[in-house]
From TrEMBL:
Signal peptide: none annotated. Residues 31-112 form the Chorismate mutase domain. PROSITE patterns: CHORISMATE_MUT_2. Residues 1-31 are annotated as: Disordered. It comes from the Bacteria. One of its GO terms (biological process) is chorismate metabolic process. This is Chorismate mutase. GO terms for molecular function: chorismate mutase activity. InterPro entries: Chorismate_II_sf, CM_dom_sf, CM_II_prokaryot.
Amino acid sequence: MTMTSTSTAQQTTATAAATATATERTGARTESAAELIGGARDRIDALDDRIIGLVQERMAVSAVIQEARIGSGGRRVNLSREMEVLGHFRDALGKPGTALAMTLLELCRGRI
Ligand SMILES: O=C(O)C(=O)C[C@]1(C(=O)O)C=C[C@@H](O)C=C1
């Protein structure tokens, strides 16, 4: 055997190492599944960046409303409006939607 040739045993070992790497990276047992998962994770990361940007935009708009209300002599919190927001998310996403909306409201106006 020359120094540059690769035995079947070495190839098998290399393939096993590649599969182990895919499993370590993604939990998948095949390289093709790991590639699909890697691409989908990139899409999720991009979606999460957009969601974070939308949450930050919502916080800024909410602050404008709260400052106008407080500046006019009113209170920061408007519970009837918060019930509408909670209902909107619950109708769209069910019970976890309510929890998500509560977290959004907490981010936008702090804890009551
Ligand atoms: O819609 C309002 O009046 C707001 O002040 C915005 C907002 C919200 O972030 O959705 C924040 C605080 C209020 O308690 C209710 C709702």
